[in-house]
Amino acid sequence: MSKTLNIDFFKVVMPSNINLAFGEVLQKVITLPAEQRFKVVRLHHLSVHEANFGWQQTWEGEIICIRMDNVPAKADLAGKIEDFKLADNEGIGEQSAFIYHPNTNIMLLQSNKHGVSSGNFAQYFELMIGSNDSIYIDPVIQLDALQRLESMNRVKKFNVSIAALEDMSVFNNCGLEEFAKLTTVYQAPSINIELKASRKKHSSLPLEKVRNTAKSLLGISTQNQSQVKKIRISGSSDEDDSLFVDLLKDRMRESIQINASTTQRNISYVERQKALRSAWQKRELEILKTYGKLTN
Question: How many CB atoms lie under 10 A from the CB of residue 235?
Answer without folding.
Answer: 25
